[in-house]
Give the backbone structure.
Amino acid sequence: MVIKHIVEGYESFSDFIQKFDSGGQLVHIFFSGSKEGPDGQSWCDDCVRAWPVIEKELEKADPNSHFIYVEVGDRLTWKDPNCSFRKDPKTKLMVLPTIVRWKGPQKLEGDQCEKPELVSMLFNDED
């Protein structure tokens, strides 16, 4: 089973990723709006639609890989042009949701994250 991690906010993400050792295994990161309210769903409707697809494709991913679920903050935090996730050269986030292969060029943004075939390729293709 894929090794899952959940991180909330930029500072926690920065600390986590700085100390994180994947042991040479694949690492995928899903950036989503933070979960709010009694239903525990993200404020980001696109993220809510993408999550079931991602969750299903994770079941087929390399069991020795890592998946990091990052909540970027509330809507106001994300919409701020100076949001740390937008400014960080390692993340360069422009769209939610976004899935990346850490330290690789592979990236899915927005409604691409809702397409099972694309998510599967990201999680499973070597290149």
Remarks:
- The longest strand covers residues 3-8.
- The two ends are 21 Å apart (CA to CA).
